[in-house]
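About this split. The held-out portion is used to measure sequence recovery: a designer receives only the structure tokens and must propose an amino acid at every position. Recovery is the fraction of positions where the proposal matches the reference. Here is one held-out target exactly as it appears in the evaluation file.
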């Protein structure tokens, strides 16, 4: 399966700490219930853990979900910490 990550309609950063032990269903439920957003709208959602050195992505490609996981060996992310927000990357 090849996914072109250059062309999702929207890319969102889910601000705050997210428990990265959560799987696809739990992350999708977080988006739909807590933020009241459509997880099926050709959007890539990015979540960061407490340690700022790893993050997950959740993407619906029209047929199924794909979960991405990235861990930095050196360095950390600068991640917004206000849990009440979802910010769109433009």
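Reference sequence for scoring:
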């Amino acid at each position: 399966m090849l996914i072109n990550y250059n062309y999702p309609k929207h890319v969102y950063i889910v601000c705050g700490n997210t428990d990265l032990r959560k799987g696809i269903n739990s992350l999708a439920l977080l988006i739909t219930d807590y933020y009241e957003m459509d997880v099926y709208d050709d959007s890539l959602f990015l979540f960061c853990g407490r340690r700022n050195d790893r993050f997950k992505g959740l993407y619906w490609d029209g047929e199924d979900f794909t979960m991405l996981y990235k861990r930095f060996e050196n360095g950390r992310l600068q991640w917004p910490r206000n849990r009440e927000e979802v910010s769109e990357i433009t």
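Annotator remark: The chain has a mean pLDDT of 85.
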